[in-house]
Amino acid sequence: MKIRKDKKYGIFISFICAVVFFCVSMPLRLAISWMDITGVRIDEALPQVCGLLFGMWGAVGCAVGNFAADILSGTEITISIISFFIQVVCSYLVYVLWYGNFKEKYSPYPVLDRYSRFVKLGKIIFINAFLNAAMLGMLIEIYQYDDFFSDTVMIILFNNLNFGILFGMPLLTVLMRKNIPIITPSETPKKYRNPIINKIAFVIILVLIVMCFALKIITGEVSVYVMAALFVGVVLFVFTIPLKPVMKKEFSGIISMNEKMIFYFMIGGTILSLITAVVGVMQMSDSDYNVFQIWQRIYVLTGVTVNLYFIIISFILKYIEKNVTMPVKAIADISVSYDKENDSYNSSDVIKECKKLSENKTEIGEMADSICRMLEDIDIFTQRIKENTAEKERMKAELKIASKIQLGILPHNFDDFADSIEVFAYMKAAKRVGGDFYDFFRIDDENTAFVIGDVSGKGIPAAVFMSMTKSVIQMYSVRGKSPADTLTLANKFLCTNNSEEMFVTAFIAVINTKTGIMKYANAGHNPPVLYKNGKEFSLMKVLPGFMLGVIDEMIYKENEIQLESGDMLFLYTDGITEAENEKDELFGEQRLIQSLNDSKENSAKEILNHIKSTVGEFADKREQYDDMTMLLFKVK
Predict the structure, then answer these.
(1) Which of 168, 515, 552, 610 has its CA 20 to 30 A from that of 536?
(2) pLDDT by residue (tens digit) across 370-388?
(3) Exposure of 317 by Cβ count < 10 A (0-12 exposed, 13-18 middle, 19+ buried)?
C-alpha cells in the first residue's frame, strides 16, 4: 500500500475530489429540479470515502465541489457557506473516528476484510449521517425551508447513511485494491492530545442534540445558538481525538475470501435497494400522492430496508467469519508461515493454535487436525534431519582433519636430494581422503628409496590401510632390506592384520646415488615410464608381481637397471590413465607417454604440472572417479 503525506499531493487530491464531486453532483441537480436541497444524492457517498482515504485534503475537496454545485444550483450563499463547513467537519469526522482508536497501538488500513471493520465503518457512517442530518436540519429550519422533523431531514439522514453503505463501502474496496496512494495520519504528539476536552465535547454534543429535540417539541422552534454550539462541540470533538498511525506491514495486497464475501454482500444490498425502490414506485404510481411525496416515501422505505439488511448481514458475516473464513485464513497462514529455518519461529505454538482450530466440529476442524498431525510429523522429521546434518558436518570436519593428516604424512620437501636427484610428486584424492600414496626417503648415505602405492577402495578405510602400508614399507626399507624382501615382508604383515581383506598395489625403487644402479620390485602396480639415454619416454618392462595383503606366502622378485645423468623415472597410479571424458574415453597410457614426451625438456615439477593440466583438460567437466598420484625423479 502506497502512503503519501506531502503537501503537493494533498493539494492535488483536494482538486481531484472537488472536480469528481462536482461532476457527479451537478448533473443530478440539473436533471431533477426538486433535488436542489434533498432527493436522490448518490454523491453523498463521496465525502465519506474521500475523507477516509485522504483525511482533511479529501474532506475540503469534496466540500469545495459541493459549494460550487450549491452556488450554481441557486442555493443561498449563507446556507452554502455554512453547509461547506458542516461537510468539511463531517467528512473529516470519518477519518478521525477510523484512525482514532484508543485501545490499539496501530490503526488498521481502511480495508473491509474483517467483520469488525465492516461494522466499525458502518457505525462511523451512521454517526456521520446523523450529525450531518441534525446540523443541516437545524439550518433548513432556521432559514424556514422545511421543518426539522420533515421528510427532507429524514432523506438527508438516509442519503448519507444509505449511499455511504451501498456505494461508499464498495467504492472504498475498489479504490483500495487499485492501490492508489492514500493519506494516513502520524501519531498525534502527546502535547496535542487532550482526551478530557474530547470527552467534554462528546458530552456537549449529546446534551445539545437532546436540547435540540426538547426545544423543538416544547417550543416548536430550533435556536440558532443551539446550532452554533452544536457545531462548535462537533469541531472540538473531531480535532481533539488522538490519532494512531497504521501498521504498514498489515496490508498484504491479497484479496482475502472474507473481503470478497463482504464485498458481495454489499453489492447484494445495492441490488436489494434498487428492487425495493422499483417495486415501491410501481405500487404507489396509482395513488393520490404527487411525485415528490411518492419519492420521499419510497426513499424512506428503501432506507429502512437497506438498514435492516445491513443489520442482518452483520450477524451473518460474524457467524461466517468466526466459523469459516477466519479459521480457513488461520490455517492458510500457518501453512504459509511455517518455516523451520527461522529459529525464532516456535513450532509448538503453531501446533497449539492449530489444535484450537481442530476443535471446530466441521470439515475445517478435520483439516486443521490433519495439518496439526502433519506439523508434528514434520517436527520429528526435521529433528532427524538436523541430527543427520550435524552428524554429516561432524564427519565432514573429521574428514577434513583426516585429509590434512594424510597429506601431512606424505613427504613434501623435494629439495632433500637436490645434490644428486631432482624429485617432485603430486596427489589428489577423489574424496576428502584416499588410498593412494607416494614416498621417498634416504635408506643410508648412498641409497634412496622411491615408493608409490594404490589401496583398493576409497575414503577413510583406504586411507588407514594406506598409512599402514606406507609405514611398513618404509620400516623394512630403512632396515636395509632389498626392494623384493621389503615387499615380501610387508605382504606377510598386511595379510596378518587385514580383517577387512583389503589389498594394495605398490612399486618400490632403490637407487644408489654413487653407482647409479636402481633396484626395483613390483607388487601388481602399473609399470613405470622410463626416460633413458636422451630418448623418448616409454613403458618400463617389469615383472607384474601380485598385490600386497592377499596371499601371505607370496615371494617377490626384483630387477636392477643402470641409470645415467639425465635419466628419469615416472611413477603413477591408475587414476591418471583411467581418467574419463564425457565420451567415456580413457586417458590411457599412450596419451600419458605423449604428454611426458611433450615436456621432457622441463624440470620434474613442470613435467608433473603439464601432466596434471593435460589430464584436467581431457576429463573437462567429468567428475574425478579415482585418486590421482604421480612421482617423478631425475638423476643429475
Answers:
(1) 515
(2) 767 777 777 778 778 888 8
(3) buried
